[in-house]
Specification:
By secondary structure, the chain is α+β, with helices and mostly antiparallel strands. It is built from four helices and seven strands. The strands form two sheets. A four-stranded mixed sheet has the order 2-1-3-4.
Length: 127
């Protein structure tokens, strides 16, 4: 069976993360159900890997937080989107967190439908 590895990386401070990363995690959970339902019959196993960034790592590169890759390819590349930044919350300090800029819209948290779209594009590359 072939694999689609979805790697999600986010800031973890004192065992918690910011609200937008929590919302992205909810989107990932919904997307995983849909992607597994769609791709398992095609012989593709969907695997989620979660990585945490320390506050020190986050401060060096804030846009590394709340990033999603599909078999090593960033979601933005698959969807021809851009990475942006905006002010977030106390967990992030003074740093601006990652946003997704796609077709004139800006997303602080990445919704399930966008994750599914990127996953299907990545799966097509596997097939």
């Amino acid at each position: 069976m072939k694999s689609l590895v979805i790697k999600w990386q986010r800031l973890i401070t004192e065992g918690d993360t910011c609200p937008r990363c929590k919302d992205t995690e909810g989107g990932l959970a919904k997307a995983l159900v849909l992607l597994r339902r769609s791709l398992t019959p095609l012989g593709i196993k969907v695997i989620l890997e979660k990585d945490g960034l320390s506050l020190k790592q986050f401060k060096k590169k804030p846009t590394a937080s709340n990033s999603i890759q599909f078999n090593g390819t960033p979601l933005e590349e698959l969807l021809k989107a851009e990475t942006g930044q905006s002010q977030c919350c106390g967990a992030c300090g003074d740093e601006e967190c990652r946003t997704l800029e796609l077709k004139g819209s800006s997303y602080e948290a990445i919704p399930a439908n966008i994750i599914v779209r990127a996953g299907l594009i990545a799966a097509a590359r596997i097939l």
